[in-house]
Amino acid sequence: MCGFAGFLTFGNSRLDSEERRAVLVRMGKLLSHRGPDDEQFYDDGTLSLVYRRLSIVDLDGGQQPIFNEDGDRFIVVNGEIYNHLELRKDLTQRHTFSTHSDSEVALHLFEDQGVDALAHLRGMFALAIWERRERALFLARDRLGIKPLYVCRLPNGLLFGSELKALLAHPDCPREIQWQDLRETEAVPLSPVPSYVRHVEHLPGGHYLLAKGGRIETHCWWRISDHFDDAPFGMNSTGYRKEFERLVDEATQEHLLGDVPIGLHLSGGVDSSLLATVIAQKRHDVACFSVVDRNTWKCGDASSARQVTTQLGLPWFPVLFDHHTLLDEIAFDLRRLEQTVHMMDSPRFDLEWFFKEELHRFARRQYPDLKVVLLGQGIDEFAGGYSRRLDNPHSSWDAYLTEEVEPNLRYWRGVEDRRPEHLREFTQGADHGLSPYQRQMLAFANQLQHFQLWHEDRSSSSQSLEARVPYLDHRIVELLASVPADLQSYLFWNKRVVRDTLGRRLPSYDLEHPKVQFFLTDDKQSLNIVMHEMLQRCIPAFLDKYLDDPHLPFDADALRRFSYRVLSRQGNFYREGWRLMECLAIAIFARQLHSPDADDFSDIRRRRDGAPEIHTSQWDEVQASFANMPPTTKIAWNPQDRLALPDGVQVMASISDDHSYELVSASAGFSSISVPQGLAWVERFLRHLGNPAAADFTINDWADEFEIDRQVLVETLDTLHLAGFLVRRPAEAVPHFDAVDKA
């Protein structure tokens, strides 16, 4: 994992040499987290380039750019070429190598074969080759788009770089938000993959760009659809299973390439556990890092990770993500939010990005010399990983196709056609002779670049870590794409091809272990609570800093009123809290578009405190805390506080359950709670909470009314408050609301 950026100028540059150098210095600084080990510049007046290196292979001699023997061509690469030793054997007959770097192999191969060289590279890469005599720039991206590459076509040239912020260091880079890119959630595989900035593009995975003589051309060199129905093993499912196992073995061993310590993010699920079994065949020094939170504990992932590492003899480092304490442990505030937006180059905000960065930070804290971490990312998209998961189970493969795949395809096609949202479910999808799952593979190949691979790259690179994804070795993806539709139910239902492989290698593993997505839980309320707590910690400072900003893309008064409604828990404040956080992220992004290097977040990236490691002696203590502790800090109740329903909501008794109640806002329910039997006073409390006659009741009055101990009442109030069922009217103003104007 490295980073590069630069600009190509057709004709005479309007920037003199000192100005070009200043731009390159800014670009390099903005990419320093991707490559903290070395920085090199190149500038000949036509091409200006900066390269930041994270040294992984050939630590002493792999400095880039790397020139060929004649010095008329050079290469820079972000990523890794895993089969470079194999390719080097043949190339040494015709070329003299000056380094042991995998990147030099790609350069000489390109000299021999031109664009066709790309088909021989196994790995993840974004590369740039400059032909000095021809004044031609060649940019290429790996098949699945694992490594990022932004491009921006200018009237007199081209900007390019590993991250958006590096392009923004150039004075000619556009800075206008592309609002239509925000029209859908990250779950919709938009095409092309959005940059969120008008006229700035991602070079798509499997594509290359050639800029020469004032012309810029983009071409596709690989597509997954070319491998549909290749059927190398016909209708023999055993052949596919054996080949899958062989390729996973080979790809995982290749991904251990490097002269530095390597780790594995081990969720405890099927995918990462299979990687652990392959790693343990050859090495026992690969550290495994696992998140332990309420969700991974409840679904069994945490216990599974513990058992897998114990059985395989791999070092294990579990980290506690307790929503009760996490925001305090990482000192979350407005600046931490700004750093996340800066890191992600995105006007969106997702808790998964936030948590993933903290996991990478923990790994670097445990192993300061760690530079590479393997992930189980990518296999779900091509091997049926979503067909039977914990949050959305299906009874069969056919049911999965009918109930989820085909409706999603219609909806996504409706998004592409820009049909009204209420009509998208009726869209007729063009199948082009493909099966429903093949069409979904096409969409997922795009979504990986849009969301999963993109955020994995950013959250790992923020900690100067290279994230590697063995399951996205193109040979594995091509094999899975080649499976005939009639065999998909045998191999892909409940990800059977992966589970069977793991079962043969680790018979003790529970093969019925459910699929659980990262931080996806049926207890969504805890995530709502975390989001609302984040807003409370950063809204006052945000309003002070951003409402007068000339680049604020919102009406300042409207945003202030909206902030007050959410923080004072009016209406569906949890759902609206997510929308408010998006507004904050957009405002921060808009400011950073104009001043990408105005703030230095290096101190936050380098910070090593955070979520704590769990030691064996603490296992029972953690289990008890998850069973009893509320997700966030308790409220400091005052006996004279008055209690009320949030404005604009009412409590409705459930029709199907006599002891369940739901909060309703604008005729839509948004939170529910079930009252245990024997607590009839709680049900009476809920029924009377919105009664005007009880408006002046204090906490003491309610305790007297129900003849219950005040501590018992306060504990119940904590639960109801977190569930959104009540707000307090404090005896004295709450300090952190002072900065939020009601007007």
Description:
This protein has 743 residues and is α+β, with helices and mostly antiparallel strands. 40% of the residues lie in helices and 16% in strands. Helix 6 runs parallel beside helix 17.
Topology:
Elements: E1 3-9, H1 17-30, E2 38-43, E3 47-53, E4 66-67, E5 73-81, H2 84-91, H3 102-113, E6 123-131, E7 136-141, E8 150-154, E9 157-161, H4 164-167, E10 200-202, E11 207-212, E12 215-220, H5 237-254, E13 262-265, H6 270-282, E14 287-292, H7 294-299, H8 301-312, E15 316-320, H9 326-329, H10 334-344, H11 351-366, E16 372-374, H12 379-382, H13 397-416, H14 436-461, E17 466-468, H15 474-481, H16 485-492, H17 496-505, H18 524-546, H19 556-567, H20 573-594, H21 602-606, H22 619-628, E18 642-644, E19 649-653, E20 660-665, E21 668-674, H23 680-688, H24 699-706, H25 710-722, E22 727-729
Parallel strand pairs: 13-14, 13-16, 14-15, 16-17
Antiparallel strand pairs: 1-3, 1-9, 2-3, 4-5, 5-6, 6-7, 7-11, 8-9, 8-10, 11-12, 18-22, 19-20, 20-21
Number of helices: 25
Cα distance spanning the termini: 49 Å
> How many DSSP-defined strands?
22
What is the level-2 CATH architecture name of the largest domain?
3-Layer(aba) Sandwich
Give the integer mean of the pLDDT values: 88
The H-level CATH homologous superfamily of the largest domain, spelled out, is: HUPs
- For this structure, the quaternary state is single chain
What value does the Rg take, in angstroms?
A: 27 Å
Secondary-structure content class = alpha+beta
Overall spatial form: globular
Q: Which segments are poorly predicted (pLDDT under 50) over 5 or more consecutive residues? A: 733-743
Q: Could you name the CATH class of the largest domain?
A: Alpha Beta
Helix content: 25-40%
How are the strands of the biggest sheet laid out side by side? Answer: 2-3-1-9-8-10
